[in-house]
């Protein structure tokens, strides 16, 4: 009998190819029947009624413990994949980003709420890459130091406001978030927490969170619901969505129109928006509809994202310091050893404040600002761990679950990052994965550091008192929705000494007018 070696080489290769193709076909065919495990779906509607209306990330984590870190749900006829581990998220969204970078079709946001041009909601393709390129030109890691003078200036304004009206500390955080991003994107100066643009962003963010109801979510999986008349009793979700659309449209449109008016009158300074308008305006003064929509969309997305997530992180910092006063005392001792009591911290001090770095990591882990991130959409069939994931599947990363995978996850323990170097760094998790990672992450992270460092140096934070002088311990409660905030609580914030205001005023006197350092191509000048 002839052996394989007796077969001519060309024929031998053909045989091997046929065998390999046969095995691959059988493997793929059998894998198609092995969808990832998950809870049993109900007829027609699938698992949609089994998802928690509040804090769904906690329910997804329970399913992860039961079925594994890759969980499949069915929403009507569509597949949703929940990733409950960092390994799965990186394997799929990072390593296979070429097919996992699309977005699902957001019926509610795109059609009812008017977010058609928001970068976060764009389908993967030419326009998304264009938007991302524009944003990365300004917010890449090498450009971020150029924003530090602006962040420091606005931090000093925040400190002054907190000394004068400490009970409004959340409003001061909102003013800071709006002031920094509005200066960069539109060259607008924000002096007051009652500024028109701050109020517009706050209203849009609040209504967007409130619109994330189960009925609203159903629209994305059953699009015909968008045609329901608003006068029907059960169409409250649509009435709320249309109200939200008006607010979101104002957030995108009003500051953009202000820049255009300033440019016509010759009063516009350099900004992200003005530079892009100049770049894409034709010699005869025309700006295409697509370019105008894209510029407005990227700027509005930066505005919206920075406002809500920055406030969430700062609000969480204050709550943690109220509930864990021993951590705050340790932070103040570390700060005093570096800066003393006669000056404010600056970014050059950061390497000398390692405990603060651990605290900020714990802030990000303890209350993930966006617990489920933004959903991705698989663009073609895929096989992962012998499981078949069909094209068109929505993919959610349970960031909350990933960062809760540690000892005593509900407790605030910054030392865990000193004691266990194997813990994932939350900075590399909370901002998303792959080609959809948040482009403003470096800017947001430095804002958190600047404000927390300055508060530690200048402010005492403690629990509020009741009428008998006893401490009031706020409950550990967070809102549910796209962005997680601590629920409102009272606390005491006051200057550490009588010298604090003088030190702040001296620092403000040495701070000049910030000029956005951008070149004609829309890049930050190095």
Q: Give the terminus-to-terminus CA distance.
A: 74 Å
State the helix count. 19
Total domains, how many? 1
Largest sheet features = 4 strands, mixed
Low-confidence stretches: 1-5, 10-18, 24-31, 110-115
SSE string, helix = H, strand = E? Answer: HHEEHHHHHHHHHHHHHEEEEHHHEEEH
The percent range for strand residues is 5-15%
Number-wise, the strands total 9
Rg (CA only):
26 Å
| CATH-level-2 architecture | Orthogonal Bundle
Per CATH, the superfamily is: Cytochrome P450
What is the CATH topology assignment? Cytochrome p450
The side-by-side strand order for the widest beta sheet comes to 1-2-6-3
Morphology call: globular
Secondary structure: helix percent: 40-55%
Mean of the pLDDT scores?
Answer: 85
Structural class computed from helices and strand pairing: alpha+beta
How would you sum up this structure, described in words?
The chain is an alpha+beta fold. The protein has a single domain (51-509), classed as Cytochrome P450 (Cytochrome p450), CATH 1.10.630.10. It is built from 19 helices and 9 strands. The protein has helices at 9-32, 56-67, 86-94, 97-100, 107-112, 126-139, 148-164, 169-186, 196-210, 214-221, 236-265, 272-280, 289-323, 325-339, 354-366, 399-403, 416-419, 441-458, 500-509, and strands spanning 70-75, 78-83, 376-377, 382-384, 387-389, 394-397, 459-465, 471-472, 491-495. The strands form 3 sheets. It has a 4-stranded mixed β-sheet with strand order 1-2-6-3. Strands 8-7-9 form a 3-stranded antiparallel β-sheet. A two-stranded antiparallel ribbon has the order 4-5. Helix 7 (148-164) crosses helix 18 (441-458), helix 7 packs antiparallel against helix 19 and helix 13 packs across helix 14 (325-339). The longest helix is centred in the middle third of the chain and has 35 residues, at 289-323. The protein is globular, with a radius of gyration of 26 Å. The relative contact order is 0.15. The model is unreliable at 1-5, 10-18, 24-31 and 110-115 (pLDDT under 50).
